[in-house]
Amino acid sequence: MRRLQPKKLLTIITSRAIEKMIIEALRKRGVGGYTVVNASGAGASGIQSGMLDSDSNILIYVILSEARLITLLDDFDDMMNRSYRIKVVVTDISILPRKGAATSKNSVA
Amino acid sequence: MDIKSFATLLDPAVLFFFLGIFAASVRSNLEIPAPIAKFLSLYLLMAIGIKGGVALSVSGLHVQMLVGLGIALFMAFFVPLYTFPLLRRKLDGFNAAAIAATYGSVSAVTFIAAGQFLDNHDVEYGGYMAVALVIMEAPAVIMAVALAAMTRASLAKQDAGAAASIGKNSSTFSLRNILHESFTDGAILLLMGSLLIGVIVGKDGYQVMKPFTGDLFKGLLAFFLLEMGILVARRIREMKGVGPFLIAFAFCIPVLNAVIVITLSQLAGLSAGDTLMLAVLAASASYIVVPAVVRVAIPEANPGLYFGMALALTFPFNVVLGIPLYHQLIQLL
Questions:
Q1: Which residues of A touch B223 (CB under 8 A)?
Q2: CB-count burial class (<10 Å; 0-12, 13-18, 19+) for A94
Q3: pTM of the predicted model, to two decimals?
Q4: Is the pLDDT at A107 greater than 80, yes or no?
């Protein structure tokens, strides 16, 4: 029986236009697994209706270890200093590892 | 003034645009699903691309075409150049650069609406206008990114601590990146591809596609404008805090750009159809390609301003009043 393993869930809310940039930042830090979901909503940039590419938001979900998260947070901090409009949310979660506790140390979903 | 030009307000496509505005204004739940809206915009680009390509295969290359493309390219550089200092009077350098890029670039839907207007008036225009649409997309963004970089540099001079971020932002979006984003954008790629296919298949080959790209065009354009009406009305509500300067900019700059193009085109001896299409391209503002590129290249700018002005103010102005107005001006000059 697998044991629950503590992980971090990183949720990024941003414009679809920024997606490539975020994915590139993840890739540079060795994170190959992520989930992107189309989203609509409103915020400081006004309504994001989701009907035009230039008017659409996305949610990016990444499950990762705390060590890797910290390096990524540096990247996002840098992007926010450069005025990129991104929201970064970190949640403590537990996951059932795919390959068992011993081999899943570096796994990401 | 000839009232006939403004009779286009009774065109079904324009009326559906009003219906969309009305639906969103009364907070109706009428909504076009996003994948269908995407399909409609791609369909329209494919249809005008192939139509332009077929027209090009018939007309071939000619001097007028080069003159028309020259005017298009000139306007793509000139508009950001003269609007930037104007905008700087009221805005910071980043927002000024972003809005200058938006108005220097073009709106494909406005272009399509103008083509429909000319079809309704039995006025022909050159197939190369689709090429003009494509070449006007990128120059304004390139100039705006350069202007934003200059703003960053001057800010960094004032604040030594910000110096590190200049290099980072400018390296994030190079000239190569902008050209790549502009010309590989799905819409532009489809438009250019359809244009090429139109040139290859010619008039005979077009007959096979006509039931899809020709006969259905008007109905699907009306459906797409219904969606645009909904989008516009939702955005208009957010434009209350924009201020009179930018509202006046969103309505006056398109007319000024159109007048410049009409004057140049008349001097160059272009046909009335080509002149109107070029005027509409110069008068339109991009709300799809440019905002997506500017969000990455000039993150300091507020998308609520440059996107909102192009979509909620300039787009409906051009579709409803601008196109017939420019047509009238061409008749007068």
A1: none
A2: exposed
A3: 0.86
A4: no
